[in-house]
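Subject: Sanity check before I submit

Could someone independently write out the structure tokens for this chain? I want to compare against mine line by line before I put it in a report. The sequence has 161 residues.
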Amino acid sequence: MELKVERLSTESFEEFGTVLDPYNCGEPINPGTPIEYFNDRMPLTFAGGSIVTLSVQFIHPRPFQFDFTEAHDDTEELFGGFNSDLIFHVGPATPNPDYSTFRIFNLPKYQWIRVKKGVYHECPFISGDEKEAIGWVILPPYTAYNDTREYQISDPIEIKV
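---
Independent answer below. Compare away.
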């Protein structure tokens, strides 16, 4: 199977979550001041407490194909702020992944994605010539251990750039 990269937009990503472009996110609560503050632009819902963690993620170049996906049943996930353009996959929230419904998007550098509960996803790919990308993932503590369904894909899915 091969999936083509799509242009990321609020409309094209609506089924899976929310897009945040920090350079185009509305009016600050303190316009015209030396330090503008854009309050609460990407709310995140999750079960099991009121603590979120900021995790750092380094991504190194790898082939444009994936053989793994995951979903969080009780937790939404934020990732972004990367210093490079990235490519990532998502699949609709269903009890089991249907790879024919997965989609591929380009995440422009410094933008953010909120992935809804149950949506399949996994670590992005570097889309340019950079040697590595660095960015952030925001989740409640221990989500990787207590709210992650993992699926190994027997026939890797190719990403058409």
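---
OP: Matches mine. For the report I'm noting this point. The first strand starts at residue 2 and ends at 6.
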